[in-house]
What does this fold into?
Amino acid sequence: MSSTSLIDDRDWSSLTLGERIRQIEVEGYLVLPGLLDAQQIADLKTLTATWETQATDYSESQRFRQNIEFDGGLINDLVIANPRTLEFLHALCGRDIILMSAIYARSEPGHPGISLHTDGQPYGSAIFGSAGSAPFMVRVLYYLDDLTPDISPFRVVPRSHLSFHADANPYYRFDSHPEEVMVPAEAGSAVLINHRVFHGNFPNVGSGSREMLALGYRPSW
It folds into this structure.
């Protein structure tokens, strides 16, 4: 982490519904704490331990598995159809929402971090395909481990999805940004983002792995 990085460690549980909606609409990110309890996290970790994963093209220490929605069971009950998450998404987007993607990711010790990027690319891309071209999408990132400063915490550039500047080209990637923010969170929480905001994560310089379930939803309209 850069020594100049800000840390957003506010009490997210104190936000009202209106404040949560404003946070993700204007700032581009939001934390919903305590969506999964300790037993649910343990059950999901037992499941993920059985999955075969692939390494990303930039690091053997970053592993992933796509299309986890087809595993059903716990993934559907605890994650995809999590009632508290859906309640918020319905308030944000309307009653009808569509799941666009569901991915598992594990950042192991030695993971170099992910550069600042967007998941929203209006003409599609080889990485995100047509899903990235949806004009509105919310990414919901469930963390099965604590997001601490040394184990790949989330990073984001607030309000970057609002910029018209050429530097906000959604196909760009950046190593760092002077206004980037580190967002810690406890296991069982989810970070929600506007898919057009620039975000990534910091390196894993700790001794443990960090597991995440990343879902994408868009309003049906």
